[in-house]
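Changelog entry: the 3-phosphoshikimate 1-carboxyvinyltransferase record was regenerated in this release. Current contents:
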Amino acid sequence: MSSTKVLDNQNIRLQGSIVVPGDKSISHRSIMFGAIAKGKTTVSGFLLGEDCLSTIDCFRKLGVNIEVNGTDVTIQSDGMDNWKEPKEVLYTGNSGTTTRLMLGILSGTHLHTVMTGDASIGKRPMRRVTDPLRLMGAKIAGRENGQYTPLAIQGTKLKAIDYTMPVASAQVKSAILLAGLRAEGTTIVREKEISRDHTERMLKQFGANIEVQEGIISFQGGQQLQATHVNVPGDISSAAFFLVAGAITPNSEITMENVGVNPTRAGILEVLEKMGADITVTIEDEHAAEPTATITIRSSSLQATTIEGEIIPRLIDEIPIIALLATQAQGTTVIRNAEELKVKETDRITAVVTELKKLGANIEATDDGMVIHGPTALGGGQLQSYGDHRIGMMSVVASFISSSPIQIDDTDCIAVSYPSFFDHVRELKNEIY
Ligand code: S3P
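Regenerated structure tokens:
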């Protein structure tokens, strides 16, 4: 397998400051919105992760001019009415966000397009998006009646829907809202549990009129987006790995600036506080389109907790690393209502439980989460990432507290969301003796 790494991190502590890369969800959306709007959109702090590069690649194939200069991106678009019909298949790589949001965007264009991704994307459910889009009139064909890629989309005229979300999913919500941009009438999305709201915030930033009230989003079709500047904050889902690393690795102290702390994403901060972590969050800019903070974490003793209900969508991507955190906490941590983990880049309930057990953790899978008894000292072992960036990074963080080396089979996948992850590990790592 490619990029096997042996991590020999015994007797280390983590100390210093890092700036985590740009938020993945917001980076994707900045390209999509910039391509939809007529004119020049500029983006700073863009994440050069593989997933976001897949989004750029798809829009280039639609004829949108996108220039990347470090983490600055310029999108020059003649508006979506002037996109070209691509001769090639749009390849979305490992990116669920690209695949699902593009379905919503492409459904209301004048174009025929075909989308496909890697082996993991080929297993991820798409009916959750194609079903509501079909209610809007979208013409989408794909394996198992539109459940799996490759998917063919024949753009057409759409009509608005009033849709109650059966699962808490920002990808589904965003696909419907982006289709709603081109639909006749007022699109309404009702959420029982609030998922990340980057699409709603960015629609406002691009000049759209959108109403959000107690989980009900209303949005009039036919609005034109105005090109603008997007400042992408650091990704709290990437910061999460070093928040946990700092909390569990003895004698550590890590500071991260410019971390996005949008409340629909910041559930991990609440969990860390509840578990007794030594954490300081200083808000930098409360009124920005996306609020940011400087966060410092120091190692401390931790107590178990229960994580369930409305907080789950606000920390869904952080559950693998929270599971590792819980192995070091006193007592029994219960995570429930998190069945969505089964349909991420891999089945993250099975992956987390299998891999942490190999290190000696006392952890069991349940139907909708896991139960972790702690604290347990972790040993070394041979771990798999399952090609999932977040499982790979969880395993690297485990090596900071394991009593002997950890070998991880495939760490290349980490570049999906955090290409500079190992540089940051090197910067923070101090040998104790
Ligand atoms: C994302 C939404 C979440 C998250 C994913 C990114 C987004 O997925 O897990 O990493 O950018 O909208 P769901 O909305 O499917 O839960």
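The chain has two domains: 4-22+233-428, 24-231.
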